[in-house]
Design a protein that fits this description.
By secondary structure, this protein is of the alpha+beta class. The chain contains four helices and four strands; from the N terminus they run αββαβααβ.
Length: about 110
């Protein structure tokens, strides 16, 4: 993952920590896979957000923080949001997407 992508991810995480009960944060997808993270990559930055709870308000906050974090860098953050329960115990938490994120994702300490 490029330094710019990592910086945007950290900025996004810092914004989220101030506004939601953040449990986990990870970048995944083409911008983090080896060989696909060229600085001029036009792809969005896929980011897993795990919140203690998930409500419409939390989803709105995540969206707002994504816009704020990526605005200056010109990188579109595409968040995928789970509650802690969904990530740890529901079928969605063991989906092919979740398995891929666990395998290739770049997790930040929150």
């Amino acid at each position: 993952m490029s330094i710019l992508n990592h910086t945007v991810l950290e900025r996004f995480g810092a914004l989220l920590q101030r506004r939601v009960s953040l449990v986990g944060l990870a970048a995944f997808g083409s911008r983090v896979r080896s060989g696909d993270a060229a600085p001029d990559n036009d792809s969005d930055l896929d980011v897993l957000v795990i919140s203690e709870t998930l409500t419409p308000e939390v989803r709105r906050i995540v969206s707002d923080c994504a816009f704020e974090a990526d605005f200056d860098a010109g990188i579109l953050i595409s968040p995928v949001v789970y509650s802690r329960y969904e990530w740890e115990h529901s079928p969605e938490g063991s989906s092919p997407l979740a398995r891929s994120i666990r395998h290739e994702g770049v997790f930040l300490t929150v």
